[in-house]
Amino acid sequence: MPSSKIKPSSAVQNQLNRHHLSAKKKYGQNFLIRNDILKRIVDVAEITKKDAVIEIGPGLGALTRYLCEASGFVLAYEIDERLRPLLEENLKEFANYQIIWDDVLKRDLAKDIELYIPKGTSVYVVANLPYYITTPILFKFLEEAPQILRYVMMMQYEVAQRICGVPQTKDYNALSVAIAYRATASNVFCVPKTAFVPMPQVDSAVVRLDVDSIPKIKAVDEDFFFRLIRLCFRQRRKTLWNNLSFSFPKDLLKQCFFELNLPLSVRAEELNVYELVQLADWFTNSGK
To answer: Per-residue pLDDT for 155 more than 90?
Structure first.
């Protein structure tokens, strides 16, 4: 691990001041400053020098330093170019990284991975995710980058609960289903809000997702499946029928519910991933 410790809160603030910078709320910038938590995140990821890591939002490079030390290569996405001199300063002792100065949500992930990471390399995502785009980021990676083997991510505690949600609970939603379709989720440990500068209003949690080496189940059309589950959970208090009626003709829905033996009163949260794949496949196979 890096020999020089990440700076405590006062030193981090001094470094920002020296570069005439401040954390931008619109980018969800809360810089993690505790070395014990940074090290634990990397330990949970179980990466080696043979592996490549993708990081979203390296910020000041605190976690990036640990990732460069533990892995063979780090590909990081940072939207805030103001941080370029700080990142270059904090990562000057490392050469095994590449920063893409762009919004990760606008990138072609498959092309980036093909360009920067040698074929056959094990790829992991390890990141302190910006709270405001955690869900879109996860959906994008799950849909576009199936070659990623493991995710270890820090996020808002409530989002972590939803990721690990199971059917017939308040935490179960479209993201829970998308995760369950590809991986096994575990809520590893909590992180207090005092571990960040500036301090956020809520606590965080680190979640690990292990992507299934053999899919539990495979939708006929995966793109449609991911779109459909968003529709199913569009409004949580509504029934599945009401949510889908915004997008499908009622006569088609009647046929679907009858053939799948679904009661009209069923809600999306009552269906497990296998039943939702079955629902998506019905529409796909119907040709309508």
So the answer is: yes
Cα separation, 206 vs 232, whole angstroms: 27
Q: Answer whether residue 115 shows pLDDT above 80.
A: yes
pLDDT (tens digit, 9 = 90+) per residue, 63-112? Answer: 999 999 999 999 999 999 989 998 999 999 999 999 999 999 999 999 99
C-alpha pair distances (Å), 104 with each of 28, 123, 222: 14, 16, 21
Contact 208, 33 (CB under 8 A): no
| Cα–Cα dist 167/150, whole Å | 23
Residue 20: its pLDDT value, please?
Answer: 60
Q: Is the pLDDT of residue 3 over 60?
A: no
pLDDT tens column, 37-57: 999 999 999 999 999 999 999
- Specify the length of the chain in residues: 288
What's the sign of the alpha-carbon dihedral 266, 269, 275, 281?
positive
Q: What is the pTM of this model?
A: 0.84
Burial readout 198-235 (b: 16 or more C-beta within 10 A, e: otherwise): eebeeebbbbbbebeeeeeeebeebeebbebbebbbee
Domains belonging to the chain, first-starting first, are 9-211 (3.40.50.150), 222-286 (1.10.8.100)
Q: In whole angstroms, what is the distance from residue 280 CA to residue 288 CA? A: 12
Contacts of 22 (CB under 8 A, 6+ apart): 16
Cβ neighbours of residue 33 closer than 8 Å, sequence gap 6 or more: 6, 7, 8, 9, 12, 62, 195, 196, 197
